Amino acid sequence: MIDFQDPAFVLDPYPQLKELRQLGKPVWHEGLEMWLAARHSDANAVLRTKTLGRIFTPKSPESEWGEFNWLHADSILDSEPPKHTRLRSLVGKAFSRSRIDALRPDIERIANSLLDDAQLKLDSTGSFDLIAEYAEPLPVKVIATLLGFPDKDEHLLRPWSQAIVKMYEVNPSLEVQSEAKRAAHEFAEYVRSLMTDRKATPGEDLISELASVEEAGEKLNAQELIATCVLLLNAGHEASVNGFGNGIVAALERKDQLELLRRDPRGITNTAVEEFLRFDAPLHLFERTATADTEIGGITVLAGQKIASLIGSANRDETIFNDADEMDLTREQNPHIGFGAGIHFCIGAPLARLELSASLPLLFERMPNLELKSTPTRRPTFVLRGYEKIEVVGSK
Ligand code: HEM
After folding, report:
1. Is the C-beta atom of 260 inside 6 A of ligand 1?
2. Which residues are identified as catalytic?
3. Per-residue pLDDT, 1
């Protein structure tokens, strides 16, 4: 059975995920004590089935994990109806397609200014890191602006988020656990004081909007407000950084795909963005717990048992995608489930799509000769799959 911590698996999980799909139905993983749904139909069904819920198991002792626990239990992602419906409807409007589409000029301005700096680095040192200079700061700045998180403290977001999301990997070490507790505490306290400021002096941002709802009392309490803001700040950049990074490396490694991007970056943007998210998914595994015995793809998940939806595997399912293991930036039929499915379908999908579709063509228009300088460094994690560093070179 798959060893999710084996460095060779983490480096390239796709051959073993293919073997898992070939078993034809979900299989029980003894080590993880959960079912694994690897085929597209099963992974999709896991996310859509009402008796499979996102049920957060609090960590103990509560005295140490308190903030980490409620930051999850009171967030949209880790709650189920009716609480989920209430929380999601409060932020839903802010992420509607029309409100998000209006952000395009701002996103392009941020992307251009980051590319100005990257070009300076390229001119002076001969290379730059696509993650540190472009893929990471872009979504961080966008989500921070949307929520009204102060510019001067933007640098705190990725380290806090990284410390928390490392807990989603299999068997987190004691060091990872203690970092996650610390980050949860600092992040919650920071957002709490921001919320107090915004109640006193409201701005045009989402934190101010939610703080006024909280003050009115009925729909949102203070913990839910903080948990929701922390979730949006984290989810609002973590997968976007890796979605861009994973896709761009795969494209830079394939001559034919790179040629397509160089020749007509704007013309293929929409299909390219979807293929980025399908081909090397930034998020690979989401768990659900059965609230009643539930049949999925020929097995029964007993009440109380867990099952994982393996999104990255589903996106390579050869029964759904032609040449599933090939990257094709012009792929038309692309029913990937990179943004999930069902009631927890990614609320930020329009924003993530906009960020990718604004930043990808600009990069190739301004730096058409971009190439990898060296083999990029992968992060040693499976659930959140991404690169640490992507050094690139390229003359004008
Ligand atoms: C490429 C980028 C992104 C990817 C691949 C992605 C993927 C996902 C997936 C797979 C889920 C569902 C998890 C589950 O079912 O358990 C999800 C949920 C969510 N995402 Fe994203 N996401 C991205 C960007 C964003 C952005 C930019 C935001 C900003 C607001 C965001 C906010 C959320 C929230 C709040 C949820 C929870 C929704 C709910 O539980 O109802 N995501 N995302």
Report:
1. no
2. 235, 238, 240, 346, 355
3. 86
Question: What ligand 1 atom has the least distance to the C-alpha of 356?
Answer: 1
Residue ranges of the chain whose pLDDT lies below 70: 217, 395-396
Query: What is the CA(95)–ligand 1 centre distance, in A?
Result: 11
For position 185, what pLDDT does the model report?
A: 95
Q: What is the pLDDT of residue 211?
A: 87
Residue nearest atom 14 of ligand 1, based on CA coordinates: 344
Ligand 1 centre to CA of 338 (Å) is 9
For the chain, list the domains and their CATH numbers.
Answer: 7-393 (1.10.630.10)
Helix, strand, or coil here: 286? strand
DSSP bridge pairs for 281:
none
Measured from the CB, is residue 232 less than 6 Å from ligand 1? Answer: yes
Tell me, using a 6 A CB cutoff, whether residue 386 lines ligand 1.
no
According to DSSP, the residues that pair with 154 across neighbouring strands are: none
Please indicate whether residue 286, judged by its CB atom, sits closer than 6 Å to ligand 1.
Answer: yes
Q: Is the CB of 47 under 6 A from ligand 1?
A: yes
Query: Which atom, in ligand 1's list, is nearest to the CA of 79?
Result: 40
Q: Taking each helix axis from N to C terminus, what angle separates 222-235 and 174-200, rounded to the nearest 10 degrees?
A: 120
The reported pTM is 0.95
Q: Which atom of ligand 1 is nearest to the CA of 243?
A: 1
